[in-house]
Amino acid sequence: MSEETEELLERIAAALERLSPPPAQAPDFDAAAAFVWDAEPGRLRPVARTSRVELELLRGIDRARDTLLANTRRFARGLPANNALLWGARGMGKSSLVKAVHARVCAERPELKLVEIQREDLPSIGRLLALLRAVRQRFLLFCDDLSFSRDDEHYKSLKAVLDGGIEGRPENVLFYATSNRRHLMPREMIENERSSAINPSEAVEEKVSLSDRFGLWLGFHPCSQEEYLAMVRSYCAAFGIGIGEEEMRAEAIEWQATRGARSGRVAWQFVTELAGRQGLRLEPGGGGCG
Q1: Consecutive 10-residue runs of the chain (290 residues): their mean pLDDT?
Q2: Which sign does the torsion angle of CA 270, 232, 268, 147 carry?
Q3: Lower Cβ count inside 10 Å, N or C end of the chain?
Q4: In the 8-state DSSP scheme, what is residue 260?
Q5: pTM of the model
């Protein structure tokens, strides 16, 4: 074999390996409670410490909290449970609730792991499911801020975990997603496609029906002023921030007025300001898993 031919074959072999990479290797799932899926090179990266707040600190979302906690506990015990879509107002604790619920249930059942996947990595989800299907642990797949635009085809990949195709969704995998949109796509886009389509009822059915594949819908709505202040009080008490009620109330209301919104995120940002002034540290998490 000539040197040129040998070099050409080596290049072809390298190209084929890039097109069809070897199967991902499972990490040591006992080493961490949470992982991040890196689509390239196709591996699960352990998270040493999950950024989260305690479940008790999430105020104004009691019904969603109790429902998601019960659903997650059933799944961790090997009982039937639903994929969940947490949708609604910005900053009201959707992603915080997922992470806090996982921490609570993981403390009871350490075999429950949290795996975060980015929306743009959904096309690789088949490889991830194949990896998780073969192990004994149970997994919450978590996609934050999930939504789709007009020409976005990523939603088709999501059906693999929601419906499972021929193989079915792995029994040890559940999918939780958060979105500001109930139907995962802008309302004006739905109306535009319906009005311009030959058959309006079919124009967006495939994308809109994706949200119907979540068995559990949890809505998050803007909070009232009293709920917002209750969030601030809760954070101040948890982190030992000393401030009088009247002073706290006046400053918190002024803070939310300058932001033009009331939410759990705005409450946390205000408390961060207070803690900084007083030279206090806000330690994330604490207790539970990860």
Answers
A1: 73 67 71 92 89 88 95 97 92 94 96 94 88 93 81 64 72 92 60 50 58 87 92 92 95 94 92 94 62
A2: negative
A3: N
A4: T
A5: 0.80
